[in-house]
Design brief:
This protein is α/β, with parallel strands linked by helices and 242 residues long. 34% of the residues lie in helices and 13% in strands. It has 10 helices and 9 strands. It has helices at 27-30, 33-42, 45-49, 99-102, 111-116, 119-125, 130-141, 158-170, 190-205, 217-222; strands at 10-14, 74-77, 85-88, 105-106, 109-110, 177-182, 209-213, 229-230, 239-240. The strands form 4 sheets. The protein has a 3-stranded parallel sheet, with helices on one face. Strands 2-3 form a two-stranded antiparallel ribbon. A two-stranded antiparallel ribbon has the order 4-5.
C-alpha cells in the first residue's frame, strides 16, 4: 500500500534521460540563473542608455541576438550522407549577440563572456547575487562546477544530466516534495557518490522525501528504509524479498 500521498505537493523524477534535443538549452537556462543574469545586464547604465531590456540579452528571441545564426553562435551545414557540420558564425564569431549588446559590460564581463564561465567561476563573479548563488550553488555542490554555463544540454552525459536535474530540485522548495531517483550513482566516482548522499540528506532535512532505485551499497547504507526486490532480475524479480 501507499499511504500519506495527500501530504505531497509535487513529485519530481530525476533520471538519466536527455534534458532536450535542442542546443539552445544550457546549464544557465535550465537552472533559471540566466533570467537573473539578463535582468542584471539590463540594469547596467550602458544598457539603459541604449534602451535595452532583459529580452535583448536573450539568445533565443529576436532583438539583441545575432540574426545571422539566430543566436546559436554556429551555422549548421547539412551533409547528405554524413553528420551535420557546425561552423562558427562568421558574423558574431561565435559570440551569439550583436555588437551593441556585447558593448554592455558588468565588471568588464560581457553577456557572451558569462556563457563561457564555468559554474565555479560564475559563483565567484556573482557571489553577491543570492538568486544566482541559489540556482548554481547545487551544481557545484554535486561536482558539476566544471560545466560552462553555455554548454548545450545535448552534450551532457547521462550522469551529468541527472545531477543537473537534481540540482534544480535542490534549489526549489522541499516541503511536501517527493523526489524519485533512478540509479543516481551510475557513472559516478566514489567521492561524487558521497556528495550525492549529502545532497539527498539536505533535501530530506529540509522537509522533502526521497525514493531511490539503487544498487550502490554506499547509497543503500545511507537510506532510512531499504526494500529489497527480487529474488532475481527482470522477469525473475518483482517480489519484496526483505
Amino acid at each position: 500500500a501507499f499511504e500519506g500521498a495527500d501530504a505531497l505537493r509535487k513529485v519530481t523524477l530525476v533520471d538519466q534521460a536527455p534534458l532536450g534535443r535542442t542546443s539552445r538549452g544550457n546549464a544557465a537556462t535550465y537552472t533559471k540563473a540566466w533570467d537573473v543574469v539578463r535582468a542584471l545586464y539590463a540594469k547596467e547604465p550602458a544598457a539603459t542608455a541604449r534602451g535595452l531590456g532583459p529580452a535583448d540579452f536573450s539568445f533565443n528571441v529576436d532583438g539583441g541576438r545575432c540574426e545571422a545564426c539566430a543566436g546559436e553562435g554556429y551555422e549548421t551545414v547539412e551533409m547528405q550522407f554524413l553528420a551535420d557540420v557546425r561552423l562558427i558564425c562568421p558574423s558574431c564569431k561565435g559570440r551569439r549577440f550583436k555588437d551593441e549588446i556585447l558593448a554592455v559590460q558588468r565588471g568588464g564581463v560581457s553577456i557572451a563572456d558569462v556563457l563561457e564561465l564555468t559554474v565555479d567561476r560564475a559563483l565567484d563573479v556573482f557571489r553577491k547575487e543570492p538568486a544566482i548563488v541559489r540556482a548554481l550553488g547545487p551544481l557545484a555542490y554535486l561536482g558539476l562546477g566544471y560545466l560552462r554555463l553555455g554548454q548545450p544540454l545535448t552534450t551532457l552525459s547521462g550522469g551529468e544530466a541527472q545531477r543537473l536535474k537534481l540540482s534544480r530540485a535542490l534549489g526549489e522548495s522541499h516541503e511536501g516534495a517527493l523526489v524519485v531517483l533512478d540509479e543516481p550513482s551510475a557513472g559516478l566516482h566514489a567521492d561524487e557518490v558521497e556528495k550525492l548522499i549529502h545532497a539527498l540528506d539536505r533535501l530530506v532535512e529540509a522537509g522533502g522525501s526521497v525514493i531511490v532505485v539503487e544498487h550502490d551499497l554506499d547509497v543503500v547504507l545511507a537510506a532510512d528504509h531499504v526494500i529489497d526486490m527480487g529474488p532475481g532480475a527482470g522477469a525473475s524479480g518483482g517480489v519484496v524479498v526483505a
